[in-house]
Design goal:
This protein is mainly alpha-helical. The chain has eight helices and three strands. The two termini are about 20 Å apart.
């Protein structure tokens, strides 16, 4: 895959990959909400269009953030799972949640305040570690890779 970067700045380079409107939303849905299938993503509150979702999942796969696979007894449904590279973004997702709660709540009063935010704030490192472990445990029995 030929990725174009605007400059040699590490932050700008990361944003060239992750700064799209949907990339971190999809990764968040996988890590926190356990979304695995195309239908899981399209049924979410974020209402991502199917054509955009198709492009973004393919992009995430090409970049090595996700893999796709099928169950041996269900060849129709494709499952998407985060790689270690994709899971490494967990800390960024958690930091964004904490930042958003701190600085955007006054602008978006209807923003949900899940109990997890309290846990995130009280022991961020443990929360991240537990979130990754929980994800890995759930996806240990992976379908066969495509």
């Amino acid at each position: 895959m030929d990725v174009k970067f605007r400059c040699d700045c590490p932050i700008t380079s990361a944003l060239d990959i992750l700064g799209d409107k949907w990339i971190l939303v999809i990764i968040k849905q996988m890590i926190i909400q356990g979304k695995e299938t195309f239908k899981d993503f399209t049924d979410s509150d974020e209402s991502i269009a199917t054509n955009i979702l198709t492009v973004k999942l393919k992009y995430l796969e090409e970049l090595g953030f996700v893999t796709k696979s099928k169950l041996p007894n269900n060849k129709k449904t494709v499952y998407y799972h985060l790689t270690d590279k994709g899971l490494s973004l967990t800390s960024i997702i958690v930091e964004l949640a904490i930042w958003s709660d701190e600085y955007l709540r006054e602008l978006h009063s209807e923003m949900q305040k899940p109990e997890e935010l309290t846990l995130m704030k009280s022991n961020k490192e443990l929360f991240i570690k537990d979130l990754i472990a929980s994800y890995k445990e759930k996806t240990t029995v992976r379908p066969s890779t495509l």
